[in-house]
Amino acid sequence: MPLLAVLTLSSCLRALGPGVSDDVDRAPGQLEAVRLVYLGSGGWIMEHGEEMVLAGPLFTNPGVLRTGLLGITSDTVEVNRHMSVYDAEYDVSRASAIVVGHAHYDHLMDVPQVARRFAPGAEIVGSRTTKNILGTWSGMADRVRVVNDSAGDQRTVGAWLEYGDRTRVMALRSQHAPHFDGYTLYRGTRDTPMTEEPSWATEWVAGETFAYLIDFMSVQDPDSVAFRIYYQDAVAAPPIGFAPDVLISERPVDVAILVPATFDQVDWHPEAFVQNLQPRWVVLGHWEDFFVPIDEPTKSIFLTDVRHFERRLERVFDGEWWRPEKGTEFRFPVG
Question: In 244-297, where do the E strands start and end?
Answer without folding.
Answer: 255-258, 281-284
